[in-house]
Design goal:
alpha+beta; Rossmann fold; OB fold (Dihydrolipoamide Acetyltransferase, E2P); 5-stranded antiparallel beta sheet; 8 helices; Putative spermidine/putrescine transport system ATP-binding protein
């Protein structure tokens, strides 16, 4: 049965330096939260603290109102799946999945029958008799996931389990995780450095920067309404227009641009995602400028433009793409305009 997970002021120091400096985060019962951040920011350390594989220097871990902080790993009701499946090579796929049930005292026949059900959930019922060495990477991770679910954890912890898989296999694992939510409704805390993965699988994405949760929100809100320049930049935002808010509009070298939401008067930076910016003729845009660079980005093109307010970018799809030196207009859709505080320090 799933339960909520609450991290309250978690601190973890290594060599005097605080890798985690007061992490507060709640994962609702049956929800999926992705912990997103650059490499080396302590994301995996958070999972280790929840699983009981490490001890916080301060703060508490709670699940369903129960304080887990001082409990041994096997008493926490959590299961952890990492990048490496760590299957037992001498056991069959079925017996790997049945292992936590056997440890819990189930008779062999009952454990294997229940394990077969979990293999069916992950679409590998026909591989029950195989050994791990004969499996592909994606199949191994499915077995590891089935084994974790067989332990009936209240909280499922995923430490970048899909990062080593090919893109197509990774997308299949994302779909599988969505299907499993409908079947068993685990509470999931997923660690990833992949923005697309976080958006694909999570209800809420929590951005971990400088040892703290900088913002936690649905992925779409994070991109269009970041809490700070640091969050915007980490999520790939490149458009920043310095200026000030005056009576419901942002005033800058681009002129006066109305804002869709109330924002306090004072200095602020206008951010608009490059994917939302449209190119038009010089006379028709909210800003005008000269194209300085055009860069392919898969099926799209990044167009960089010099404007009176500094460089701005737009991403365009197939079709006519302007060339360096062209004069263009940029449309900044009103519902995509957002103001964040100016960076300090």
């Amino acid at each position: 049965m799933s339960t909520d997970l609450v991290l309250d002021g978690l601190v973890r120091r290594f060599g005097g330096a605080a890798v985690l400096d007061g992490v507060d985060l709640t994962v609702p019962a049956g929800g999926v939260v992705a912990l997103l951040g650059p490499s080396g920011t302590g994301k995996s350390t958070v999972l280790r603290l929840v699983a009981g594989l490490d001890t916080p220097d301060a703060g508490r871990v709670r699940a369903g109102g129960r304080d887990l902080t001082g409990l041994a790993p096997e008493r926490r009701g959590t299961a952890l799946v990492g990048q490496r499946p760590r299957l037992f090579p001498h056991l069959s796929v079925l017996d790997n999945v049945a292992f936590p049930l056997a440890v819990a005292g189930r008779r062999r026949r009952a454990a294997r029958a229940e394990a077969a059900g979990h293999l069916d959930l992950v679409g590998l019922a026909d591989l029950a008799g195989r050994r791990p060495a004969t499996l592909s990477g994606g199949q191994e991770q499915r077995v590891a996931l089935a084994r974790a679910l067989a332990a009936a954890p209240a909280v499922l912890l995923l430490d970048e389990p899909f990062s080593a898989l090919d893109p197509g296999v990774r997308e299949g694992m994302h779909r599988l995780l969505a299907d499993l939510r409908g079947a068993v409704s685990p509470t999931v805390l997923l660690v990833t450095h992949d923005r697309q993965e976080a958006a694909a699988v999570a209800d809420t994405v929590a951005v971990l920067l400088d040892g703290r949760i900088a913002q936690a929100a649905p992925a779409g809100e994070l991109h269009t309404r970041p809490a700070s320049l640091a969050v915007s930049r980490f999520l790939g935002g490149v458009n920043e227009v310095p200026g000030a808010v005056e009576r419901g509009a942002h005033v800058s070298a681009l002129g006066r641009l109305a804002l869709p939401c109330a924002s306090p008067d004072g200095p602020g930076v206008l951010v608009v995602r490059q994917e939302a910016v449209a190119l038009t003729g010089p006379a028709d845009g909210d800003a005008t400028g000269t194209v300085t660079r055009v860069t392919p980005r898969g099926a799209r093109w990044r167009v960089e433009v010099t404007t009176p307010a500094g460089p701005l970018s737009a991403e365009t799809g197939p079709g006519r793409t302007p060339a360096p030196g062209d004069a263009v207009g940029l449309v900044l859709p009103p519902d995509q305009r957002w103001v964040v505080p100016q960076a300090t320090g």
